[in-house]
Design brief:
The chain is an all-alpha fold. Among the domains are: 161 residues, no CATH class; 164 residues, no CATH class; 84 residues, no CATH class; 82 residues, no CATH class; 87 residues. Helices cover 46% and strands 2% of the residues. The chain is built from 38 helices and six strands. Strands 1-2 form a two-stranded antiparallel ribbon. A hairpin with a 7-residue loop joins strand 3 and strand 4. Helix 20 packs antiparallel against helix 23 and helix 35 crosses helix 36. The relative contact order is 0.10.
Length: 883
């Protein structure tokens, strides 16, 4: 800002409105260095002129700084006297408090020396010697764009004096005491220094180091980790106990607990390949994709409704969810996975999968009745750009919508150049929530089905047109009042009651025959169409993408062509030539190929880091969606590059990376650190032990259903609706609206298949930190709150599962009669199922003691006491946490 930094220090220009979502960004943005011709362009509505003015002003360079000690070159005594007598008193009284003394100047702007004035502050030069009338100083004292001083406009004679002084060349004597030039940091520039940031450099393939702990190493992961431990004077802990390891493995790969038989089989297998065999089996399970697909759905803010006031459904969104799950199960190469989502409709061979994948563009929140349609469209596109940047590139591109990125070397043009690749996209739907928008629903039925529906639609249209001609002939014979009624909602009623009176018998019989044919045609059964949420009916040719001044759609500037992030490459995209009849511009495929390229230094690194994060609780780069200058540095950069190289060389396949991590000594270590490790490395950045973690919301619910014996393992298909507490539904404007009712069996399916309604999340999931689907979620944080325990002890769902759990335990043991001995057996079985290990005698006696207390002091039956114990068992930390 030229004069001030804080919004309280200046008055907004009178013509600036704060009604839009992005209007407030103007408060924090720097003052526009625009002269009268910019204002004229904005006021007149000539946005192109305004945009050119802004660009010209931002590119304008200050005059060369005078040499030190030569602050008043060639000024006459009269000019200097004019400054002392007319100008200096104005500055002292109105400006110097913020801009005239001290080592810090608001907005980086100083009036302490002439060279300071000429260089200016964060908005550029304060005085333009070649165009004095366009100087920012003249602009603000006249209260044109901004109002300076903020205490009140200067008198007209003082404004005239300052204007005359600027035209004289701003003569000033040198300061009595030298004043240092203000230092103000602007946005990082794209240069050799910023290009050298670790994440922007090409991926390397470092050799694994050597350490004294290499005898324990199972692969290169361990060698890199052990070397850093040794340098810090630490050593790795021992391996985890086998029962702990198998439980950790099952939840980590498929998100479900192992059965007692699976645990015992692993414990009894003494072969060195025992864990590798289980890893391979789990990675081939259809339930692997359900666990790992959910991690991707977090990132892309998956939900099946629009948010905002009505929060209506997005038809067929569940097919995108199944596409993600199936892609993980098939180990689809990650580069192909990205390309399909970004440009599946532009591939040389468009497939069912690739069309469904473009549903990625339709997952964002969408306002079905915006106050400003243009603002809403750019907000929608911003959500897509921001999500794509963070998820696929680990870059916060969205921060450059209104100005050059403040933290990363990313000019505003990079943002709009990125957006320009998507210039053919239409909004999710039109105003009013069109449920089957022609822009977001694609028919992917077989050619035979499409042809059958097309033929029937044509026949229906022909019959309707014939009937309409007969109706219109009769209407022309009716009275004026009846004619007017046929133009509105009463048309059907008028035709039903009076049409026959204005037709001959032959005409009416013919009309009835057509009507009967139409009814029969509509009743005819046809194979159902398969519609999918997707990109459809793109705008061709693609719209021009202007650079929006301060991110405001009402002030478009110069057009911006598609361009890659300039800090990563100087190459210009090779865009396809448009030809008549093209359905898309082909630009998104260019962007997708660049993002998914093995030459891109970010894409593979970001995904490898995310896979590591999912296995270890945090990434080698903790800020997993921010690899920029202010993101966290990698704790083990060489290891990250080594894994990234293997990932790329392996064809971007994820399962081999899982195998490498899961087979490492590091992942199989105990979670019990030594005192020395905790003192030397409290954050465990060196990975000297495995970190215990709480189960995710889905793992908790699915694990509970698994131990109660109620889990329905059906795979894929439309989403299900669980029973929602009446108290929760009562919070809706129309209680129960948009929430269906599935059968009890369907309600017990895995959590990934539960309908995700943005305004109505399932309490058993949201209380355990299920992500907010309005924005991308790079990591789940595990909180500890009273509401979690209140939910798990008192909710109808948990109590019902406790009852089912008690029945399952009795069925496993074939116990009909409950006595002291059989109750002890039930306690032991319940603890075995929840902890995946045999309980100790003391633990069994403690559980039996609780049952006895409930029976004796609580006066409850043995059946109910066992249910209460089972409720306690599913609330044990050992069930809710993984060692």
């Amino acid at each position: 800002m030229l004069f001030v930094k804080n919004r309280d220090d200046f008055r907004l220009p009178r013509q600036v409105k704060r009604s839009s979502r992005w209007g407030t960004s103007l408060l924090a943005a720097s003052i526009l260095s625009a002269a009268a011709w910019l204002i004229q362009g904005l006021v007149s509505g000539d946005h192109a002129v305004a945009g050119k003015a802004l660009v010209a002003e931002e590119n304008r360079q200050a005059p060369d700084d005078p040499a030190p000690g030569d602050s008043s070159p060639g000024f006459s005594p009269e000019d200097l006297a004019f400054y002392r007598e007319k100008i200096e008193p104005i500055f002292v009284k109105n400006c110097n408090e913020c801009h005239g003394t001290g080592s810090k100047f608001r907005g980086g702007f100083s009036l302490a020396a002439r060279e300071h004035l000429l260089k200016g502050g964060e908005s550029g030069p304060g005085v333009l010697l070649d165009k004095p009338d366009e100087s920012m100083l003249i602009d603000v004292i006249n209260y044109r764009t901004y109002e300076m001083p903020p205490s009140g406009k200067l008198p007209a004679d003082q404004i005239a004096s300052i204007t005359e002084w600027v035209k004289r060349g701003a003569p000033m004597p040198p300061p009595a005491v030298p004043v240092a030039m203000p230092v103000h940091e602007g946005p990082p520039q794209v240069n050799e220094t910023t290009k050298a940031h670790w994440a922007f450099r090409p991926v390397t393939d470092p050799r694994p180091p050597v350490s004294q702990w290499d005898r324990l190493a199972k692969n290169d992961i361990d060698r890199f980790l052990f070397a850093k431990m040794e340098a810090a004077g630490l050593e790795p802990v021992g391996p985890a106990e086998k029962r702990t390891l198998i439980r950790r493995l099952y939840y980590d790969v498929i998100g479900l607990p192992p059965s007692p038989a699976q645990v015992e089989a692993f414990v009894q297998d003494a072969s060195p390949e025992a864990i590798s065999k289980v890893i391979d089996d789990l990675l081939e399970s259809p339930h692997y994709g359900e666990k790992w697909g959910r991690f991707w759905l977090d990132l892309v803010r998956y939900a099946e409704t629009n948010s905002f006031e009505r929060d209506n459904p997005k038809p067929n969104a569940w097919k995108y969810r199944d596409y993600v799950i199936n892609s993980f199960n098939r180990d689809k190469p990650y580069d192909q996975f990205l390309i399909e989502q970004l440009a599946g409709d532009e591939l040389p061979q468009v497939t069912r999968d690739s069309v469904i994948a473009t549903g990625y563009y339709r997952l964002n929140a969408w306002d079905d009745e915006p106050a400003d349609q243009r603002q809403a469209f750019y907000d929608e596109m911003d959500d897509i750009v921001s999500t794509t940047g963070q998820v696929m590139l680990g870059m916060t591109i969205g921060c450059a919508r209104c100005h050059d990125h403040k933290l990363d070397p990313m000019p505003q043009k990079d943002y709009y150049g990125f957006l320009a690749f998507m210039a053919d996209l239409q909004s999710y739907a039109g105003r009013g929530d069109q449920m089957n928008s022609r822009w977001s629903q694609t028919d992917i039925s077989s050619p035979e089905v499409i042809q059958a529906h097309a033929e029937r639609d044509a026949a229906v249209q022909k019959l309707e047109e014939q009937m309409r001609q007969i109706e219109q002939g009769a209407i022309l014979k009716m009275k004026g009042e009846d004619q007017r009624k046929t133009e509105g909602a009463e048309r059907k009623k008028v035709l039903r009651e009076k049409l026959k009176d204005f037709l001959s018998k032959e005409e009416f019989d013919h009309y009835q025959g057509l009507k009967n044919q139409l009814e029969e045609l509509r009743k005819r059964a046809l194979p159902p169409r398969e519609m999918v949420l997707s990109v459809n009916n793109c705008q061709m040719p693609p719209r021009v993408t202007p650079l929006l001044i301060r991110g405001n759609p009402a002030t478009p500037g110069e057009p911006v062509e598609p361009r890659f992030l300039s800090v990563l490459t100087d190459d210009a995209p090779q865009l396809p030539t448009l030809t008549p009849g093209q359905k898309t511009a082909g630009r998104r495929l260019v962007l997708a190929n660049w993002i998914a390229s093995k030459e891109n230094p970010l894409t593979a690194r970001v995904m490898v880091n995310r896979i590591w994060q999912m296995h270890f609780g945090r990434g080698l780069v903790k800020s997993s969606s921010n690899f920029g200058l202010k993101g966290d540095l990698p704790t083990h950069p060489e290891l990250l590059d080594r894994l990234t190289t293997r990932f790329i060389e392996g064809g971007f396949r994820i399962k081999p990376l899982h195998r490498l991590i899961l087979n490492s000594y590091a992942w199989q270590m105990s979670s019990r650190p030594t005192a020395a490790q905790l003192n030397a490395d409290p954050q465990n950045d060196l990975y000297s032990h495995f970190e215990m973690r709480r189960l995710t919301a889905e793992e908790t619910r699915d694990g509970l259903l698994a131990v109660s014996g109620e889990l329905n393992l059906a795979v894929g298909g439309p989403s299900v609706y669980t029973a929602m507490p009446k108290e929760v539904l009562a919070g809706q404007s129309v209680p129960g609206q948009g929430w269906g009712q599935s059968s009890p069996e369907e309600q017990n399916r895995r959590s990934v298949y539960i309908h995700v309604k943005r305004s109505l999340l399932v309490p058993t999931l949201s209380s355990l930190d299920f992500p907010d689907p309005d924005g991308t979620c790079p990591i789940r944080f595990a909180t500890t709150q009273p509401t979690q325990a209140l939910t798990s002890l008192n909710s109808a769902f948990y109590n019902q599962q406790a009852k089912e759990f008690a029945e399952r335990v009795r069925a496993d043991l074939q116990i009909n009669e409950l006595n002291d001995e059989s109750l002890r057996q039930c306690v032991a079985q319940a603890l075995t199922l929840t902890t995946n290990r045999p309980p100790t005698t003391a633990e069994v006696e403690r559980g039996f003691g609780l049952i006895q207390s409930l029976r004796d002091r609580g006066q409850v039956s043995a059946d109910l006491a066992l249910e209460r114990f089972c409720l306690v068992a599913i609330n044990l930390n050992e069930f809710l946490y993984l060692d």
